[in-house]
Amino acid sequence: MAQTTEAPVAPPPRADERLGRKSTLARVLARPEAGAIAGAIIIYVFFFIIAPPFRNASSFSSVLYVTSTYGLMATPVALLMIGGEFDLSAGVAVTSSALCASLFSYEFTTNAWVGVLVALALSLLIGFINGWIVVKTGIPSFLVTLGMFFMLQGINIALTQTITNQVASPDISTLQGFSSAQKVFSASWTIGGVNIRTSVIYWIVFVIIATFILLRTRIGNWIFAVGGNAQSARAVGVPVGRMKIGLFMAVGFMAWFTGMHTLFLFNTIQSAEGVGNEFVYIIAAVVGGCLLTGGYGSAVGAAIGALIFGMVNQGIVYAGWNPDWFQFFVGALLLGAILLNTYIRRRAEASI
Amino acid sequence: MSTAADTKTEVALVKLIDAGKRYGAVIALQGINMEVSAGEVTCVLGDNGAGKSTLIKIIAGLHQPSTGTYEVDGAAVAFTSPREALERGIATVYQDLAVVPLMPVWRNFFLGNEVRKGLRMDIAAMKKMCKDELLAMGIDLRDVDQPIGTLSGGERQCVAISRAVHFGAKVLILDEPTAALGVKQSGVVLKYIIQARERGLGVIFITHNPHHAYPVGDRFLLLNRGRSIGYYEKNQVTRDELTGLMAGGSELEQLSHELESAGGAAADIGRELEEDVTELGISHQPDGETDAASAATRQEGPPHP
């Protein structure tokens, strides 16, 4: 395919006068996650100074745990944002999946694993429906998933109420297969007095997989392309519709995974849980450098965004403050991160 | 209306015979004959609404002609998608270039045609191929890792052209590649058109600027309101004649009359225009033009698919 010409038309290689020396600092700052790293360091140092318990290894492990519960979902949400779409139903979809698994296996007295698989099918279906409507109609995903958010939220509460006459799902810890499922989704070990939950390991593994996909595979190239310019991507043969539906389904998959973790940790699920978490995931992705307009961002950035969340969430407790301050901090962090990101990106681009 | 004598014996890469396109009652294109062979540049000239973009869409496989025949390598074809045209080696570089501005040059270059090693992409090989291919076209890029949005319009145009060449295009359709560029940048793009021709490609160069078309073109198709108002080989036409035909002699005349009757400074401009028209010898009504056709083609081009 590649044709070569004999006559070299290009001038011989020379030092290019257009290419100024790009400093290592500028290169680092040009990465999408640069702002998040700076923010994470500041937050860490802040709580390290004002909250003595924050300095213990054991409290850092609980920071990591809280981080992982946000970070698991922030990862596919970041991929979806890079692909140019939102999912506002991501928070309640976690609860839907967990409720589905627990109610199904409890009401039909099946093995817990049956409920787990039914919930997986449901979560993937929700993702597919979100993606399919967005792709087929061209309606902004903000609206489509906002509708899905309210529908799921309504079903979660109403159906749980109808079936159990309660606001929470029944305890499923007596079911067959519960303990093996618990080992898979919510195990924990104690190493050197520090408690480590599997969700932290899973989170790190998923971030690595997502980063590999984004930066090293063709699928990753296509995710950036559909988010950066869907028309252009289509013109060169990228299956834009399938990519977007796939990304929504990835969010569905992780909603299932996170839901299973929560279910097998607490044995029961509150039907009203999950509201507001969709914003936490999106904020983690944005703090991590994802552009709201798509086509730019990183999975590592979203992970660091989630870590900032986890540190503030736990740091406030360790500092002995009223936990109500958390939301204020979240808002302030989002604003600060956006300002910092914008500032850093401009500076980095100017110094290229 | 004159037609280029078909003296060449070799089969044209792309040939339209009496092709036309209707969108419902609207006649966007009618009775078009044109061809391009390997190592040739065929220029399609016309003002806005002349039917250039409809012509591109037919050749690129987005639309099928309503009338007439479209031949590739001497055999009639009926493309149903741009992908099919691409498989036959007919690549289109659109005005908006089909690039993703935030992505690095090399990722854009290989988008949709990524080189893979198992699951992963062979990034080192792609970067090298991209750099080499661009160098072969005489494009010396600073860094193939920079976002393509940071390149100048001319550079982006050249990357898009060399991408099409690299992926085996035999015929390049260039949609107004110089329209948004300055004088110097246009020159750079024209240089690449010549390079592509020297590499044995057939180039269909769409433009409204005769000064860009004349130096690089081997054949010239002039469109006005969906009809051909002339199809020339280079030795049959001069640059001034091309310019005159493009400007539409009769329309200029009319404009000069209007300006003159307005009086004052406008009248002076009008008189100058009139002199130009006489000098260029273009004071004639292009044939085959009817009010119905002009009304119809004024709204040429359906909404983009």
Can you describe this structure?
The complex is a heterodimer of chains A (352) and B (305). By secondary structure, chain A is mainly alpha-helical. Chain A has one domain. Helix content of chain A is 70%, strand content 2%. Chain A has 14 helices and 2 strands; from the N terminus they run H-H-H-H-H-H-H-E-E-H-H-H-H-H-H-H. In chain A, helix 2 packs across helix 14 and helix 4 packs parallel to helix 6 (141-164). The longest helix of chain A is centred in the C-terminal third of the chain and has 27 residues, at 240-266. Mean pLDDT of chain A is 87; it is low at 1-17. By secondary structure, chain B is α/β, with parallel strands linked by helices. The radius of gyration of chain B is 21 Å and the shape is globular. The model of chain B is unreliable at 1-8 and 284-305 (pLDDT under 50). Chain B contains 11 helices and 12 strands. Chain B folds into 2 domains: 1-89 and 170-246, Rossmann fold (3-Layer(aba) Sandwich), CATH 3.40.50.300; 102-167, no CATH class. The interface between A and B is large, with 33 and 42 residues.
